Fold:
Amino acid sequence: MKPLRPVPLSAEQVASVRSLVFHNDPSVLALNKPAGLSSQGGRGQVVTLDEMLWAFAKPGKARPRLIHRLDRDTSGVILAARTQPAASFLGKAMMARKITKTYLALVAPGAPIPPSGRIMEALRRVETGREARMQVCATNHPDAEAAETYYRTLSTADGAALLEVSPRTGRMHQIRVHLAAIQRPIVGDAWYGGALMIQGLPAPRLMLHASALTFPHPDGGRMTLRAPLPADFASLLEGLGLRAPDLDGTPVTREAGP
Structure:
């Protein structure tokens, strides 16, 4: 495979991506991605997060590689491998479902029924022009992809609820489509029927935050990364009277392997 050509970055872009880092070791790099920044392949945007990782490349060496993606308007933990062996190790861990992702989602109207559960709706990709979205479909549809999402209600208010969500598969827009399928679309998600105003308060963006990621570390043991809620998310929860979990403690914990 032809090596990737380095992307030139401005001093402001280098400073910006370095400010997102909350863990850095010889094998992995963890960043707290803001909403509005594309992970990869963004259109109408000069540089994506993937390209900004050239800020961490040593002269003549490859840049770190993203292990997974977050939607452009989703904030939170995103993980990159600093070396090819680490990328291979984490890629295999992802395929074996040894990486656990936890999200916080603000939904309306109110808590799901039941307040916790598992969503198993199959999904298929639908393309219209240059846009691609996901739809719930029958399991026997020729384009069906199995998808599994767990959720539980953390806090409720009038017409709104804060959920903790854990996808066990990694389909595009999976959490967004699955929550819409149980009539609890994510606030701010115009694509899948989410409310753009709630209790008179505007949704600043898709209210979905990748709050934690637990994975086997390439150098041994298991690591958990936690990203605090961004100000826009925390402010809307406060305005709605919803109680958010404390994510401002230790951002990185590591357990020794056997």
